Amino acid sequence: MSSVCFCKILMHSLKYPFSTVCGLLLSDKRKKESNCVTISDCIPLYHTTHGLTVNIEIALHLISGFCKDNNLSLVGYYQANKHFYDSTPDVFAQKIADKLLEVNGDSYLVMVNNFGLPSAVCDQNNIENALLLYQCVDGKWKSKSGIVYENPTATLSCIQQLIYQKQLHFNLVDFDNHLDDVTNDWRNQHINELINEIIAVK
């Protein structure tokens, strides 16, 4: 998982700590000879309208066009539950992941581990505690290991700067923000640029 994607998932989660937040995971088009998937970016979706199918359909339509234009694939879904001790994918999360699986033939479901997040962002040795990976096995979403993070040291430094020092997570735009004001850019290109600038000097 890229630093850009990891940082933005955490920014989305921490911008709305008392809400269920969700988004889509993107990857550069896979090379046919490779079985590995690099989750290169994410699109934050919602923090107030979680579970509304109509809104998801609107977002999927727009994001699918964006992916086509930028040679990207929709490869998964992420969610952070509003309850601190709950990191289990709910029915809605599984349905969205099922839909992506049906369309793409492969899909990943990533849950933010709220309980493990504090230690994960303070110590790179605990970074694996931040997110939980699920894959569909025999028709059921089951917990799997295997998320490898790009440059953990630089990524955690970036999180410290963007979130804890500069509080720029409040500038992250999700689709709810975009629906409130269409001038809000759900692609978050300004955030991507900031993350890449910080990572580049580490």
Short structural summary:
With 202 residues, the chain is an alpha+beta fold.
Would you tell me which CATH topology applies? Cytidine Deaminase, domain 2
Calculate Rg over CA atoms: 16 Å
> Largest sheet, described in full?
6 strands, mixed
Element string (H = helix, E = strand): HEEHEHEHEEHHH
Counting helices, strands and paired strands, the structural category is alpha+beta
- Separate helix tally: 7
Helix content: 25-40%
Overall pLDDT confidence? 92
CATH class identity: Alpha Beta
Describe this structure in words.
- The chain is α+β, with helices and mostly antiparallel strands and 202 residues long.
- It has one domain (3-200): Cytidine Deaminase, domain 2 (3-Layer(aba) Sandwich), CATH 3.40.140.
- It is 40% helix and 21% strand.
- It is built from seven helices and six strands; from the N terminus they run αββαβαβαββααα.
- The chain has helices at 3-15, 53-69, 91-104, 117-120, 152-165, 175-180, 189-200, and strands at 21-28, 39-46, 72-80, 108-112, 131-137, 140-144.
- Helix 3 links the parallel strand 3 (72-80) and strand 4 (108-112).
- The protein is globular and about 40 Å long.
- The two termini are 18 Å apart.
- 40% of the residues are buried.
- One of its GO terms (cellular component) is EMC complex.
